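Appendix C: a fully annotated inverse folding record. The material below is reproduced so that readers can follow the format used throughout the book. The structure is listed first as tokens, followed by the designed sequence.
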């Protein structure tokens, strides 16, 4: 078999693995993964529309940020790298005003999910980055002028 055929086989295998790892996830995730993840992981605190008014707010020390004003608060430019670091959380030791971070460290959460079903470090890292990228796309679309 030539190298190209091999590459296709490997790519197919990886896709199949990825598909089976997500088999338990409802299909609408495929259409707009960032939105799906947002509604499931973020809306409880930041609110469905991102305005910092989710149902868990009364139980938090720090009010969750209004995520629709991220660009507005940064001179009209969506601060992509900052947002990525905030969501990931593994590089920023602390973003809370009270000395602790109330928001989960999503980079670790998403990484561990893949590790826990037998994924390699590399697969876990790739999956975590992809989910964070999808979330960022969704947040970017949410910005108010
Ligand atoms: C348990 C509640 C909670 C959940 C769930 C949560 N957050 Fe947060 N988030 C916060 C709080 C509180 C802050 C304010 C900073 C702090 O003190 O932790 C924050 C801050 C942020 C910031 C920084 C905003 C700024 O002003 O710079 C971003 C971006 C963010 N969250 C995105 C997300 C995303 C995306 C998700 C879902 C994957 C999510 N959050 C889930 C509570 C939460």
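Designed amino acids, in order:
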């Amino acid at each position: 078999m030539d190298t190209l055929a091999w590459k296709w086989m490997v790519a197919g295998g990886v896709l199949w693995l990825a598909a089976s790892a997500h088999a338990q996830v409802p299909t609408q995730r495929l259409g707009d993964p960032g939105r799906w993840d947002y509604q499931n992981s973020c809306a409880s605190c930041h609110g469905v529309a991102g305005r910092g008014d989710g149902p868990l707010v009364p139980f938090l020390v720090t009010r969750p940020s209004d995520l629709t004003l991220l660009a507005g608060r940064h001179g009209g430019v969506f601060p992509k790298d900052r947002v990525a670091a905030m969501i990931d959380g593994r590089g920023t030791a602390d973003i809370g005003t009270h000395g602790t971070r109330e928001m989960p460290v999503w980079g670790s959460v998403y990484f561990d999910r893949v590790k826990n079903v037998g994924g390699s470090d590399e697969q876990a890292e790739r999956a975590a980055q992809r989910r964070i990228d999808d979330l960022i796309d969704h947040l970017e679309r949410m910005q108010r002028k």
